[in-house]
Amino acid sequence: MRSAVALFLVLAALWLLNSGHYGPLMLFFCVGSCLFVVVLSRRMGVADEEGMPVHLALRAAAYLPWLLKEIVVSNIDVAKRVLRPGKLRISPRIIETPTTQHSDLGRVIFANSITLTPGTISIQVRGSHITVHALADEVADGLLGGEMDRRVTRLEGPAR
Amino acid sequence: MAPQLAVILLWAFLVAGSIFLLIGGIGLLRMPDFYSRIHPAGITDTLGAWLVLIGLMFASASWLVTVKLVMLLIFLFITSPLSSHALAKAAYLRGLRPMLGHQLEREAADD
User: With b meaning 16 or more CB within 10 Å and e meaning fewer, what string describes B49-70?
Assistant: First the structure.
């Protein structure tokens, strides 16, 4: 139920902010179409905690700044490697990074975070391991250090 | 915000974003194989596109436009890693072997 309400609020906000018209008829259309989508989503079984992870919102506020910092740092690192004249300083590796998340949602967040930081791309998620293509040894070792994994697990919260 | 300051910030962000977009393009040309080319493409997806979008927020006439730019940021944040991952996974499953560190060195020795 909480997910359905959250979905309705997000849809209504999207609708209102994108339309910019606030006449009674338009507001009626807004509420009607949002309710319709929520009903459809519930019938399809996608308006659940996985599709609408409101319970993560607070902890995501702690995770996002760290992730953004990592993205900027690794962007600059890859940019330096690209701009360096002469032989490219890369040594691509395929690594298997272990994951400690207990839900699919947590693993998806981890895999997406890996891909978002340039220098590492998640290729495949299988069981509790993610196959990652890393651009250089230092990047691979940084990921295998496991800080991102720990932070995503903390973001995910305790198992329920 | 003073209009002059907004214009300065607009251009600073646009230029910084464009530089990262350019670096992404150069990287795409310089990298040796498919998988390593996705990494510089990630630069254009993340910092390049974000800086341009943030810069445009300083030029928007109304807050509704700013909100739409923020929405674009969020959508990019979610969809760009998905497209990179889809590319890499499709190539991997199709059997394209990545060039790994030691192969690169051998190739350099052949030159």
Answer: bbbbbbbbbbbeeeeeeebbbe
Q: What are the residues whose beta carbons fall under 8 Å from the beta carbon of A47, sequence distance 6 or more?
A: A3, A4, A7, A38, A41
What ipTM score was computed for the predicted complex, to two decimals? 0.84
Q: Cβ contacts (< 8 Å) between B88 and chain A: which residues? A: 121-123, 133
B21-64: per-residue pLDDT in tens?
A: 999 999 999 988 899 999 999 899 899 999 999 999 998 888 88
Give tens-digit pLDDT for A88-98. Answer: 888 898 999 99
Q: Tell me whether residues B31 and A14 touch, CB distance under 8 A.
A: no
- Total domains in chain A come to 2
Q: Is residue A49 part of a domain?
A: no
> Closest by alpha carbon to B64, among A17, A30, A9?
A17
Task: Give the residue on A whose Cα is nearest the Cα of B33.
Answer: A92
How does DSSP classify residue A55? G
Cβ within 8 Å, pair A122-B88: yes
CA distances from B40 to A93, A120, B57, B109 (A): 16, 11, 25, 25
Residue ranges making up the domain that contains A138:
56-156
The amino acid sitting at A86 is G
| Residues of A with Cβ-Cβ distance to B79 under 8 angstroms | none
How far, CA to CA in Å, does B83 sit from each of A115, A144, B54?
10, 24, 22
Residues of A with CB below 8 A from B24's CB? 82
Please identify which residue in the block is written with the tokens 């490697």: A81
**Same domain as A85, residue A21:** no
**Is the domain of A34 the same as that of A64?**
no
Closest-CA distance of chain B to residue A26, Å: 17
